[in-house]
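Sat 14:20. Reprocessing the chain from the morning session after the first attempt stalled halfway. Input below, unchanged.
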Amino acid sequence: MSLMIGVSEKIRKVDLRIVCALVIFLIAISLRLSYQSASIVDQPIRADAQQYFFTAYNLFHNGVYSIEAPSDKNIKPRTIWRRTPGYPLFLYPFFYFSKTTNEFLINVTLSQAILGSMTCVLAFFLALCIFPIPLAFIVGLLTALSPHLIAMDDYLLSESLFTFTIVLAALITVISFQKRSLWLVLLSGALFCLSATIREITGFLGLFMILMFLVDSHYWKAEKKNRLCIALLFFSLGIALVQIPYSYTRNTIIASSASVPEESAWRHMVNGSDPDMRNFFINKVVPEVRKHTERMIEDKGYGLSVLFKRFREDPVSYLRWYVGGKLLFMWKWDSMYIGDVYQYPMVAKGFHQENWLSGIHRVMLLLHWPLFAFAIFGTLVFILNWRYRRLRKFEDLLFVPVLVFLYFSIVLTIMMPLPRYAIPIRPFIYILGCYGLMIAFLFFKQFSQKKRL
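Finished this time. Tokens:
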């Protein structure tokens, strides 16, 4: 009898998880489709979107990897590597069943709406590995309601695919720890490396995540001592299985005589060096400033001398900028471009067309900085608990979102902290924010109980 009761409870628990995942998906897809039907992007194939589109178009029609606009004279474009291949390859199959550019855009954004909704479900299951169901549901719901993530699914930009890949990699990593599965460890390494083929910002994320295997994890203690070393080897092998063919292909394309190498990390460091990014747009429109910036990028020695000179002239501003200023800037609600959550000029702004979408927008705007503050608080508490060996078993799994958050914070602090670059780790912020909120609640509860005594 007790066995049947136990089985019945397990079934109910599984059913509740499935119901929660389904509710999150339905909310997410409804919001994304409603937003897309209410939004009109002015010239959606522009700037970065144009380079992604042309790369996919040239691959499909000309068999050439290039960001050049197709010619009407049947002249093959030059080979130009400027964008990583992950997103152009995602766009590639849509040319098979899209007769017009408008149909292509509709098909891509609809697919991204589905992909974004799946990301919300993955975020729920990732949080479920750490939290009880109600708190995990909140994480999934916040991901579904995030105006930034909703808006990004409507652009021809890589963020939708990138966010899905990063969250999936994190989930597989957490499950691999829970099950102590070497094959899942290998898959997680491959997925983290795969994310770098979509956005190069995660080029070193796989190596950074190796830190997970160097901590004293509860999940590997039950195994033999060499098991963790083997897991680390499998994770590294997963990275190599993606990185080696990717590097070979990339170098082959770049070695072409007509190839133009992609923008370097140094360019991003120079562009992100000015406090408050005050010269970011000026650099693009003022010829003298643009020429000076390009010289700094091309001549690293000259660029370093200019940066040291600027620091000597105003050290306080630069210290503030690099120690906290960039971190706050990258988490701004408004984009650097046209403001709010919109990346490109809009003919119709989805969150300002429908009252209920506008209401969600206002609620998430109010929660934006509190969630970020609780995420920082949760991260600090987690690090302190780890330092003094006070982590409980389930808290070990928080290493994954903590390391992803720290990686992005460090890289964007060194380089260019555009708010758009931080959008893909919104789900991890929501997980850490809920953890910080939970810790704060427990502190308050313990303090209240002590006060009563």
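The mean pLDDT is 88.
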